[in-house]
Amino acid sequence: MNFKRIEAIGNVAAGEAWDIIIIGGGATGLGIAVDAASRGYKTLLLEQYDFAKGTSSKSTKLVHGGVRYLANGDVKLVFSALKERGLIFKNAPHVSFVQSFVIPSYSFFSKMKFLIGLKLYDWMAGKLRIGKSSLLSKAQVQASLPKIKTERLQGGIRYYDGQFDDARLAINLAQTAAEQGATVLNYCQVVSIDKDAQGQVNGVQFIDSLSQKSYQVKGKALVNATGIFVDDILKMDTASHKNLVRPSQGAHIVIDKHFLGDRDALMIPETSDGRVLFGVPWHDKVLLGTTDTPLHAHQIEPRPLEEELDFILNTAKDYLQGAPTRADIKSIFAGLRPLAAPTHGDGDSTKEISRDHKLIKSPSGLVTITGGKWTTYRKMGEETVDLVAKHTDLPAKACQTTSLRLHGYSVEKRAGHWQVYGADYLHIAQLMEHDPRLAAKIHPDYDFRLAEVVWAVQNEMACRLEDFLARRIRLLLLDAQASLQAAPLVAQVMAEQLGKDQAWIDNELRDYQALVSKYLI
């Protein structure tokens, strides 16, 4: 694997023209890069922060068809997402898992309604079905969810869906794109779009924010895959552009697993305001969320609103005995979904807006993709590259990604967080074997090791302290305070690997402390 930032910058500095330049290194942009590179197109991806820094690392960690979308009648999206869920399980089994969900039922009618809907959900998955929905008695629900409140409980339904580690899958996509020949860069901010004499896009200018150097690159096609930031890029193309996207915030809290259990997830399909709430075991903790709050502005590090935290805790209190309080929260986080901006009617309603993606080709040739969800990242990549190839002089080539195994592919099961490294685990184990000092934990309460810091810098393009603590491992999301305690040691090891001085360490620790404040109550 050649996934070195210095070499990627060297590829850019060489000054060759690219077939496809992709702006945005979240799920969508990375999926496009894998698709384009695997077809043989010369591909460059530029991400202004770290890979999956935004929404793509702050999901509910579900690879799912979307039970809620089925209830809204969005059958086409559910069919597509269930197929894509199956392909993620086939192509990245090390970072995706089958998760059982229990829906508690408090009336016979609701029990039957959900059972029928979930049987349809199973059927729609076809050969890629991962489990069989079934009715549960009251006693079975209690056994599955020991903390569930039993007053008026009449039983429930168990169904199966997918779970994954979103930031780890993003890193694997970046590595896979590089293995297929793409040049992939984080911390490179596009500042302007170049056009030819006919007004057609033919390149971009960007700044490497780690070196402050500017670069100009030329390309046959330009793709805007920047999620909630798509309008910023579209305004570089057309100054009078009116916003396509309205951000909707999804907030989550993370608590200890004893509040729910560590096997079955809880799904509450109809909360007080009609939203869905999940309680999902994840990395030995439990994630509670999500909300769906329309916002008027976007930012890279949103913080859950007080009313969102209250909503999650109050809903949990309605269903769980000994429910968590604010004092029990280990971490809070929020992601912004790029939903279509409302054109009429209720501007604050997000429940009825389709989560399907939209592809737009501007008169200048700029291709923009917006919307969608993690589960369908591969399909979004395929459709985007198809559109690009159709409207440029690139040779037509078939999509390769339906059966392309992603970096780290392994069917071997490993304990704890080691599972998500897949085949790379053996390399990290070798680091610890060759230098036993690297087997030391970065925090006494968690099984993350110094060898992982070394690996992340050398092979996963971790450039800053938060890259490692938030996304290469997930400690910021699992326990924000513990991640702050681990930060000085991690910064020291990163500095050694990156050839940085004490001033760099001090600056990283200052920045990280400011970041952690957004994840603490």
Question: Which helices and strands occur, and which strands form pairs?
Answer:
Blueprint: H1 5-13, E1 18-23, H2 27-38, E2 43-46, E3 62-63, H3 67-71, H4 75-91, E4 96-105, H5 108-125, E5 134-136, H6 138-144, E6 155-164, H7 166-179, E7 183-185, E8 188-195, E9 201-208, E10 213-224, H8 230-237, E11 245-256, E12 265-268, E13 277-282, E14 285-289, E15 293-294, H9 306-319, E16 331-340, E17 357-361, E18 367-371, H10 377-391, H11 425-434, E19 441-443, E20 446-449, H12 450-459, H13 465-472, H14 475-478, H15 480-498, H16 502-516
Parallel strand pairs: 1-2, 1-10, 2-7, 4-12, 10-18
Antiparallel strand pairs: 3-6, 4-6, 5-6, 8-9, 9-10, 11-14, 11-15, 11-16, 12-13, 13-14, 17-18, 19-20
Helix pairs in contact: 2-7, 2-10, 11-12, 12-15, 13-15, 15-16
EC number: 1.-.-.-
Domain Alpha-glycerophosphate oxidase C-terminal: 413-503
GO molecular function, one term: oxidoreductase activity
Task: Describe the fold and architecture.
The protein is of the alpha+beta class and 521 residues long. It has helices at residues 5-13, 27-38, 67-71, 75-91, 108-125, 138-144, 166-179, 230-237, 306-319, 377-391, 425-434, 450-459, 465-472, 475-478, 480-498, 502-516, and strands at 18-23, 43-46, 62-63, 96-105, 134-136, 155-164, 183-185, 188-195, 201-208, 213-224, 245-256, 265-268, 277-282, 285-289, 293-294, 331-340, 357-361, 367-371, 441-443, 446-449. Helix 15 runs antiparallel to helix 16. The longest helix is centred in the C-terminal third of the chain and has 19 residues, at 480-498. The radius of gyration is 23 Å and the shape is globular. The two termini are 40 Å apart. Its cofactor is FAD.
